[in-house]
Amino acid sequence: MRMHMRRFTRLTNGFSKKIEAHANAVALHFMYYNFVRIHATLRVTPAMAAGVTNRLWEIADIVALIEAKEAEKPTARSLQKEVKMARALVERLIGRRIERIQNSEPGYGIGIILSGNASFNANTEVTARLPEESTKQIESATITDGQLTMHLTGNGFVAISLDRDRFPDIVELYVYLDDDGYVVEN
Questions:
Q1: What predicted TM-score, i.e. pTM, was given to this entire model?
Q2: In this structure, are residues 79 and 86 in contact, taking their beta carbons and an 8 Å threshold?
Q3: Are residues 97 and 178 located together in one domain of the fold?
Q4: Cα separation, 172 vs 122, whole angstroms
């Protein structure tokens, strides 16, 4: 491997500055070595000799695998935007009281009316366990990949699904409105 990869030799400009880049380069080398390069003694690739694949791969096949994997995960920029928006939403929810939860007009989701002229429209699935009438204040809120959960006083909660796989046709998962403006997940 050291003979094939400049990243393992000293005093070159091919070294890796980050461990992630180094790991990616090593993985790429092993993919090429095992699936693309025909070995003289085997007269096939090691992957073909081991029965892992029955065809000779090309570099384009490896590039297609990498592009497919990259398309699956959100980009760093979109992830940072989602985290920033989620934090802004959570900060605006804390301390508000849930006045009522109601069905909106068809096509407008479920409305959650909050104190202080704030409202929350969820266009996906909403699960709620509301405590006593007098204690519906939002103490904290968490946003995970699958849902937004508002934790209420008295062990109550309101959970809103953010699962795009279950709701692929919905443009806006939720819309939050208060005096400071909108927060929209779309």
A1: 0.51
A2: no
A3: yes
A4: 8
Q: How many Cβ atoms are within 10 Å of 162's Cβ, its own excluded?
A: 21
Distance in angstroms (rounded) separating the CA atoms of residues 56 and 41: 16
126-129 and 157-161 as β-strands: parallel, antiparallel, unpaired? Answer: antiparallel
pLDDT at 67 over 80: yes
Boundary (domain end) residue, out of 31, 49, 72: 72
Domain range enclosing 84? 76-185
- Assign 3-class secondary structure to the chain: CCCCCHHHCCCCCCCCCCHHHHHHHHHHHHHHHHHHCCCCCCCCCHHHHHCCCCCCCCHHHHHHHHHHHHHHCCCHHHHHHHHHHHHHHHHHHCCCEEEEEEECCCCCCEEEEECCCEEEEECCCEEEECCCCCCCEEEEEEECCCEEEEEECCCCEEEEECCCCCCCCCCCCEEEEECCEEEEEC
Are 68 and 88 found together in one domain?
Answer: no
Please count the structural domains in the chain.
2
pLDDT tens figures, 124-167: 888 888 877 666 888 888 877 677 888 888 888 888 887 777 77
pLDDT at 1 over 60: no
Is residue 50 located within the same domain as residue 123?
Answer: no
